[in-house]
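Entry 14. Structure prediction run on the chain below.
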Amino acid sequence: MMSRIRRALGAAAMIGALLLAPVAQAQETIKIGFVGPFSGAFAANGDAWLKMLRYAVEQTNKRGGALGKKFELVTFDDKLQPSEALIALKSITDQNIPFVLQCIGSNVGAAMIEGVSKHNARNPNNRVLYLNCAALATELTEEKCDFWHFRFSANVTQRVATAIRGLPKDVTSVYLMNQDYLYGQGVAADTKKFLAQYRPDIKIVGEEFVPLGKIKDFSSYIAKIKASGAQTLITSNWGPDFNLLMKAGNEAGLDIKYFTFSAHLNGGPTAMGEGAGNRVIAVVEGHDNMGAEMGNAAAEAWVAGFRATDPGFDYPWVNFQTMTDMLAAAVTKAGSTDALKVALALEGLQVPDLYGKMNTMRKDDHQLLQPFHTALFTKPVKNDSEKTGWGWKTQTTASTEELTFPTQCKMKRPSGA
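Output returned:
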């Protein structure tokens, strides 16, 4: 009797599982493995970017996600170390997550490109696509370009061209400071190239390379900048390297213009404070006041929604939303999360950004083509930054056409592509 009861219960359980299977499948998400520094000196950047990426994913999911499923971010800590990022990549592929998202650190980005390419060659039935939202060194879509890598942000060359085009006409001397790794070295080289091309009247009166995340007191560097007589400091320092630089400059009363690539990122406005008012210009994808400047109600509502979460910082990386929307469009077009099918769907794909401007994923090198801007830290503004009373106001814009440079990428395409 007991054995018959057990068999009946087992059969019922099996039938129940079969009936519930479609429900479970319908609730399944499309996972994206986000690799970033969630510990160490740059953990604040990793945490902030996770908040921004989650918001972008939420907005894409509200519009339907892809294939009737929502996207889900799964985090992995790389401590801003390439070796740790490759360990994270192994965890992602072991879990059959179809997309790996990495943004912070071009040194990590270079390792990720190589790691993904090797994995896909060895595992054609478990390939992944590398989505890069802010590893910016131009080399990553030039000599290091790879079919499995797509960059959803302007590269160093596009950013520096925007900056030099935006320098005020009365600037005659500049001092260069950059972090001593792939990204900072690229900024330095392109700054010299575009100064010679666009502003040969400007003299470089000094240059520094600083070790990434190692300097705790920038006062000695500020003294050298002051002694040089430079009118403007051009710097790609980011994270604590920018915040500590500004702290030292304010304390020393350094009265120059700062042309930056990261002043608008989390912690930057707080570090700048009153001493940076009307003296700091940032090169930006967008900023929290651009929608209001353009009279774009949808962009204003989007910003208001993020600020309502009280993150403590602005949302400058508007390309994150472009990326998640573009991924959803590509997955939908492909009808699959298969890496090859989605990659082919992404090539040449166009979607509007937050401000309604069309962004294009160039097939030749998998580099996003978009307009870019410079913005002044000033007041009054509608949305201030980090409760400082100061915020960003657009100064100049470089069009997509002005930032579409020829590519030297010699991409090897897999069979079937």
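Residues 340 and 416 are 8 Å apart (CA to CA).
Filed with the rest of this week's runs.
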